Amino acid sequence: MIKTRQRPFCFLLFLVASTLFSTSALASATTSTAPLNLTQSTAGYAALIIFGLAYTLVMMEEYLQLRKSKPVLLAAGLIWIIIGFVYKEFDQVEIAKAALEHNLLEYAELLLFLLVAMTYISAMEERRLFDALQSWMVGKGFNFRTLFWLTGILSFFISPIADNLTTALLMCAVVLKVGGSNLKFVNIACINIVIAANAGGAFSPFGDITTLMVWQAGHVSFSEFMPLFLPSVVNYLIPAIIMSFFVPKTQPDAVHERIELKRGALRIVGLFVLTIATAVAFHAVLHFPPVMGMMMGLAYLQFFGFFLRRTLPRSIAKKKAMAIANNDEMALKRLGSIVPFDVFRRVSHAEWDTLLFFYGVVMCVGGLSLLGYLGVVSEIMYTQWDPIWANVMVGILSAIVDNIPVMFAVLTMSPELSMGNWLLVTLTAGVGGSLLSIGSAAGVALMGAAHGKYTFFGHLKWAPVIALGYAASILLHLSLNGHLF
């Protein structure tokens, strides 16, 4: 039996379904193999409203403390329920099912790819590699302005390998440690890190989810991202140079601690480089999805984890003998707290909220595409407008809506673009998110990590300066890579 409190909800679902079936926009639909055009139907409007409400909750994540994956997961389910009812009514379930499976395959490839990359980053973090880097910067006694430049430059060059989200969190930890009490420095340094991480990720398939999506879709090969390097540098340097004049040269009060790398840390970095090379080889040589190479790379880490566990007793015995010989009580204490390396524990530490959010986005956008809305947007932006202006607008939209759904929408539209324009939309979607703190995963993550110190309005104050870098990077790309258009 249905409980009394559940009856209104069930009745609401029945009412929505009945409305969808009776919509006049579907009167002319037939049982052809083409998708139904539902852009002016009750079903289409309902899906748009659901997606709009879900994304409003995503943008308010900082204030609601509601993880961004929750609303889009619910929205994805509701949109596909609507699609399922309508397509079943018109006996075209196979069309909807094929579209659903296509979107699931798109997501599965990206999920497995990102999961392996996140597992490696988690393994490096567990082996204290990032702690050692942080300790080195603190121990050097740099002033605030030097730390501003150092964290920014490192963010730019680490993000192409470790992705912009992980890089931003790492550098934010350094900034909070050395300047936690100086709110002005923390805010401006975090803005600098977000810009640098997003710019650095724009010229690498591994730097951002959007670049990974473009690479996996086959529109840009691995080596063809390199023309974006100089535009990315300019995108970072222009706002960084202007902001640096507002950073004091005073010395921070920070306590230095010595960090000892755990066994196998550097070898895991080597395995990660080998994994990336394997993924590139699968894509470039065999023309298979790069995720195959990444999953093979996970096997490298699993075998190395097995080696670390099997040789742990011998390693502990050797270190214990050395500690006793040197009368090092601290070393003996550290040996007592050693935990064996566990690959599956590293897998569990992946950014699951981000991965599930990405699922919700892919399925929502895929549903809106089947309803016909992306076809309308594509017709306006990439037929009626100049593609260059359309791609510039994609970057601006990325700052408001987040670059992942915007880029997935572009890929789903699959407009006919030159290599220069595919590189342009990759650049704008990647760096456009820097215009606002909510425009990229790096910005959203840092608002949480530096809560109350790095804020939406603190970032917004520097938006005109960031926009200068955005415009300059586009102009440089058009100038340097004009032969690709």
From TrEMBL:
> GO BP, one example?
sodium ion transport
A single cellular component GO annotation = membrane
* One MF term in the entry's GO annotations: antiporter activity
Q: Which InterPro entries match?
A: Cit_transptr-like_dom (IPR004680), NhaD-like (IPR045016)
Say if the entry is tagged with keyword Signal.
Answer: yes
Q: How does it sit in the membrane?
A: Multi-pass membrane protein
Domain Citrate transporter-like residues, every copy: 55-430
Q: Where in the cell is it found?
A: Membrane
How far does the signal peptide extend, from start to end residue? 1-27
Q: Which regions span the lipid bilayer?
A: 43-60, 72-87, 107-123, 144-162, 168-186, 193-216, 228-247, 268-286, 292-312, 355-376, 388-411, 423-450, 462-480
Alphabetized, the UniProt keywords read: Antiport, Ion transport, Membrane, Signal, Sodium, Sodium transport, Transmembrane, Transmembrane helix, Transport
The family classification in the record reads: Belongs to the NhaD Na(+)/H(+) (TC 2.A.62) antiporter family.
Spell out the protein name for this chain. Sodium:proton antiporter NhaD
